[in-house]
Amino acid sequence: MKKLLLLASLLMINFLSAQISTGDMAFIAFNADGDDDFALVTFVDIPANTTIYFSDSEWNGTAFGTDENDFSWETGASVITEGTVITFYTISATPVVSVGTIVGTPGGISTGSEAIFAFLGTGPRIPTTFIAAVANASNAFGSLDGTGLVNGSTAITYSPDGVDIAQYNGTRTGLAGNGYLAQLNEMSNYDLQDTGNDDHNDGITPDVPFDTTAFIISTIDSTLPSVANVLVTSQTTLNVIFTEEITTATAEDLANYVFNPNLTISSVTYNVATSTATVTHAGFENGIAYTVTVSNMEDVSANVQNPPYMSEALYFNTATLGLIITEIMYNAPSDNSNALEFLEIYNTSGSTIRIGGIKVKDESNFVFTFPELTLAIDEIILLATDKTSADTFYGVTFLDMPQGISNALGNGGEVLQILNSNNDLIFEMDYSDDAPSPVSDDG
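Above: the chain's sequence. Below: its structure in token form.
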């Protein structure tokens, strides 16, 4: 009996130690044209008979939606060695995987806004450990809350939005897993295409089939640490998420963080488990753009950050009233219809509104965040999917929504929202090309 118990214990230990963790795999290629394809690399040995689930439904912070598709990948009876590239071809037709088998119906990948999640779980859409994710639009994940994934590290977003096909062309030798994740989040390390044609077999790089050259995984961490993402969590706090574990001493050194415009920092608390520093400061002003520069971070292998990291514009805006959508052109009467889509937003509040950080979004294709601007009483502001074309055609000035997404405003109608930086609803409407909605905006 003791021998049986010992054997069972050893088997359980081996099982647990062999489990795949967040960041142990990454997407290296994505194709939303033709019959749809993608590829991943594994930074660890994948145990025999592992089941990995995939879903392209949005995550809402606690669960996947009920739309879109999901399937599982049964890895097969042999260990898949670290560095192996696994390809998934023609997933919207007859799926073909380079090793193992596919169970279920993957479905297609959208050229406009799509995300794919890879995870361990107890069944389809029942994740226990998220491994990796990829998207071709900034809002396509839905939310990464509760996944343990970090945009800019274990979750990769291709840029610009709406990329049709992408393939990593960077180094495949000499780095540890965290180093490859950093390289995989640099868009300069990709061949990208996004045209109105079928890009996956046009003879222009990238094309399918993908490059399956194996990655050589180093046991030595020589990658300099940096910042994967910065998230505003309240008026007085933000989270700085690092690309890897760094020393608590450098993470909690207040001098390593500088705001512009200046904000006094009162404390920094570092969470080793999530590689996240929570910075507490004097407080953002509503609608004002800030940046934070992070420098001098040292990882646990004594690699020191270089160069410093400077964030994109950060906003906090709690406006809840006074902005409405007063006009939509979603199908302009032109052969260049998709480039001439626009929205008109009007200030009904009776006072000037700072709109920096306010977001306009639809159901799935885009999220537009206003830069630091003010909107006067009874003033309108115009947003176009292609500023250059819209300025010329309509003879007025638009703000550009640089989404790279064809037909961002659905011709059949959809829900549009205006949200503040806390995602509180300011305005919502549902337009349609069916009566009683006006038909003048529909071609």
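The two ends are 78 Å apart (CA to CA).
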